[in-house]
Amino acid sequence: MSLLSMPVLCSSPIASLPASCLLIAISLGAPQEAAQEAAQELPRVVVPDGERVTMEPRLEDLAFLAGEWTGTDGTSTWKSWYSTPEGGQVLGASKELRGGRVVMIDFEQFFLDGGKLRMTPYPFGNRSVTFTLSDFSLADKRAVFANPEHDFPQQFTYHRTAEDTLLIELEGDMGSGPVKLVIELHTKTRAR
Questions:
Q1: pTM of this prediction?
Q2: Per residue in 14-27, pLDDT tens?
Q3: Which residue in 103, 127, 145, 182 has the most C-beta neighbors within 10 A?
């Protein structure tokens, strides 16, 4: 009598279905009780309703970025726009204003490459290094892109903390030690 029982994360087609828990126990000639015992000992994957379970990142998961955003940090005003993921890319455009003048512009390109979600920033319109998704939570609407070989930033965190709030954090080393820049943005309708 043999028993094989294991948690399974599928990429397709079952993974696109909403689930509160996905555990598949396969019993080969074993009594049902033995399969249930084995399944109880395995870690369970719990997924909030409405989310999918998958091993591969999906560009569509970054849809929480979409919209027009604005915010201030005391000395600067930030205006940002992020597209939806249609067409295989999410594009972003931002500008920083100080004293009524643009002091910085940045473009961002989010895309899939080799099965990995990546982001390339274009500060002042110039291509920088590419960052790879290193941490992600669909439930928290939070994505972290990292490139530890880069000086500043080494990490970009995008976190939709509320329906009308997007935090963007840039972290890295500027030569004098660790630096963290936090930009709090709000939807255009709230900012008015």
A1: 0.70
A2: 333 333 333 333 33
A3: 145
